Structures are given as structure tokens and as C-alpha cells.
Model the fold of this input.
Amino acid sequence: MEKIVEQGLLYDFYGELLNEHQKQIYEALVYNDMSLSEIADEQGISRQGVHDLIKRCNKALAGYEDKLHLVEKFQNAKKKVHLIDRIAESVEEGDTKELYDRLKQIRKLSNEILEEL
Done:
């Protein structure tokens, strides 16, 4: 399951850098959950051809991430936004004497997010 999620994220960020044929086959595997044989039959190519193409796509997408780190930045920002939400929730629960410290934490996290973008 985790590999499929990773493939989906990489494709979401970098999929437009693949050619149309690669996108079609990669989407069939990742989004439509088709088997290699099903994709091969649909595309009129061999199962091995599909396997090789998927492998090349995975390598290309991972290479883009190694260079650009967009998925990593997105996941870091997402974690920080969740932390901001938890901090805001604790403030809403009425602990007003720590309000200033909580606001400083929120500002620090939001500045980190902005710096990463």
C-alpha cells in the first residue's frame, strides 16, 4: 500500500514530465489498479514491455524528486500545518496563559513553511 501511495504522490507532482504513452500506462497501474497483463493486453504490447516502462517511469519520477524535493517539501509542510492545527486547538480549549507561547510556535512553523516554498 505504501508503495502505491508513494507512486501516486510522485506522479501527482512529476507526472506531466512523462510522455503521453508513459502517463497512460502509469495511470493504468497506479490509479486504475490494473495488472501488468491487463495493461499489456489493452496497449497491445508485451507484459515485459509494460514492466520495463513502469520501471523506467519509477526511476524517472524518483530522479525528479531527488533533484527537486517537491514531495518532501509538501509532506513537511503538511506535517507543520497539522501541528499548527493542534496548537490552535489547544488554544481554543481555553489555556489562555500559554497563548503567547502558542502564537510564537504557530508563527515559527508558518515561517518555516514559507521558507521551504
Observations:
- The chain has a mean pLDDT of 89.
